[in-house]
Amino acid sequence: MALDEPKETDKEFDIDGFKYIVDQDFYEKVQPVKVDFTYFGFRVSSDMDFGAGAGCTSCGTTGTCS
């Protein structure tokens, strides 16, 4: 996740007062995407299989990073 301005190729979501911007092509590949706010920060997860070794090294969960 990063702060960014929307581009013509992005898909925008406004959920509970938060605006999420996702590249349309990337979104088509990884949907559904879930963003949760936890005690440790944001957690982004998807059903997409990123393959062996993918994911966040701090949490060690494939396809999920917080």
Describe the secondary structure blueprint for this structure.
Layout lengths: L9 E6 L2 E6 H7 L2 E6 L2 E6 L17 E2 L1
Antiparallel strand pairs: 1-2, 3-4, 4-5
Written overview of the protein:
This protein is mostly beta strands and 66 residues long. It has one domain (10-65). 11% of the residues lie in helices and 39% in strands. The chain contains one helix and five strands; from the N terminus they run E-E-H-E-E-E. The protein has one helix at 24-30; strands at residues 10-15, 18-23, 33-38, 41-46, 64-65. The strands form two sheets. A three-stranded antiparallel beta sheet has the order 3-4-5, with no helix packed on it. The longest helix has 7 residues, at 24-30. The relative contact order is 0.16.
Radius of gyration: 13 Å
Mind summarizing the main beta sheet?
3 strands, antiparallel
Report low-confidence residues grouped into runs of 5 or more. Answer: 57-64
Q: Any idea what the shape is?
A: globular
Structural class: mainly beta
What is the number of beta strands?
5
Output the helix-strand order.
EEHEEE
Q: How do the strands line up in the largest sheet?
A: 3-4-5
Straight-line distance between termini: 10 Å
Provide the number of structural domains.
Answer: 1
The portion of residues assigned to helices is 10-25%
How large is the share of residues in beta strands?
Answer: 35-45%
- Average pLDDT reading: 76
Determine the number of helices (DSSP H or I, runs of at least 4 residues): 1
